[in-house]
């Protein structure tokens, strides 16, 4: 089993993982490494030992390398900065946007729209919305956008159904 502790220990000991292009490649590499290591009649013991090593000594922020039984084989320790491994995924930059959102209700139903592929929230279902650049254009754009939906083809929603959020 590759829990977080085992992944951290193997990543640090083996090194080189950060050079693999994506999470799938890194997973494959770790599973292959774990399979190579787990030999003998009781492979579960190795897994348990790696889990405990990760929980007690090879901790995320301050690994206790001098006390570690495999320090001589650890590439992360040899690098001089073992706590830098594994590399944390970079968080995407926060983008602020203003949008006008239409609430189109009929009976107990509310119209939802799927975000387009160009949206940062692509694929999500949400209230119909348009990004706005001025404080006055949102409701108009929202009405124009909602006219193209099946719900509003007979009657555009009143301006009061539009709310602005940022
Ligand atoms: S030597 Fe340090 S970084 Fe390497 S496995 Fe042991 S505790 Fe972790």
Description:
This protein is α+β, with helices and mostly antiparallel strands and 166 residues long. The protein folds into two domains: 4-84, Helix-hairpin-Helix base-excision DNA repair enzymes (C-terminal) (Endonuclease Iii, domain 2), CATH 1.10.1670; 99-165, no CATH class. It is 34% helix and 11% strand. It contains five helices and seven strands, in the order ααααββββββαβ. The protein has helices spanning 4-14, 23-37, 43-56, 75-79, 137-147, and strands at residues 99-102, 105-106, 109-110, 113-114, 125-126, 129-131, 162-165. The strands form three sheets. It has a three-stranded antiparallel beta sheet, covered by helices on one side. The chain has a two-stranded antiparallel sheet with strand order 2-3. A hairpin with a 2-residue loop joins β2 and β3 (109-110). It starts with a helix and ends with a strand. The relative contact order is 0.12. Mean pLDDT is 81; it is low at 152-166. Bound molecules: iron/sulfur cluster. Iron/sulfur cluster is lined by residues 9, 12-13, 57-58, 63-65, 68, 70-71, 74, 76-77, 82. Iron/sulfur cluster binds at residues 9, 12-13, 57-58, 63-65, 68, 70-71, 74, 76-77, 82.
What's the name of the CATH homologous superfamily of the largest domain? Helix-hairpin-Helix base-excision DNA repair enzymes (C-terminal)
Describe the sheet with the most strands. Answer: 3 strands, antiparallel
Q: The CATH topology of the largest domain, please?
A: Endonuclease Iii, domain 2
Computed CA radius of gyration, to the nearest angstrom: 26 Å
User: In sequence order, what are the helices and strands, one letter per element?
Assistant: HHHHEEEEEEHE
Total strands: the figure is 7
- In terms of DSSP E residues, the strand content is 5-15%
The class by helix and strand makeup works out as: alpha+beta
| Uncertain runs | 152-166
Highest CATH level, the class of the largest domain: Mainly Alpha
How many structural domains can be distinguished in the coordinates?
2
Summed up, the helix count is: 5
Ligands bound here? Answer: iron/sulfur cluster
- What is the first-to-last residue Cα distance? 44 Å
Please give the share of residues in helix: 25-40%
């Amino acid at each position: 089993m590759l829990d977080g502790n085992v992944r951290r220990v193997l990543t640090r000991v083996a090194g080189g993982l950060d050079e693999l292009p994506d999470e799938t490649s890194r997973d494959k590499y770790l599973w292959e490494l774990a399979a190579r290591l787990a030999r003998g009649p009781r492979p579960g013991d190795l897994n348990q030992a790696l889990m405990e090593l990760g929980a007690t000594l090879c901790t995320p922020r301050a690994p206790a390398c001098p006390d570690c039984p495999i320090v001589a084989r650890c590439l992360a320790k040899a690098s001089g900065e073992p706590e830098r491994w594994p590399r944390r995924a970079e968080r995407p930059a926060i983008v602020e946007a203003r949008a006008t959102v239409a609430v189109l209700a009929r009976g107990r139903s509310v119209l939802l729209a799927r975000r387009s592929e160009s949206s940062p929230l692509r694929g999500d279902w949400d209230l119909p919305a348009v990004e706005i650049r001025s404080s006055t254009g949102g409701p108009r754009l929202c009405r124009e956008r909602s006219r193209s939906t099946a719900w509003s083809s007979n009657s555009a929603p009143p301006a009061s159904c539009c709310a602005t959020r940022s």
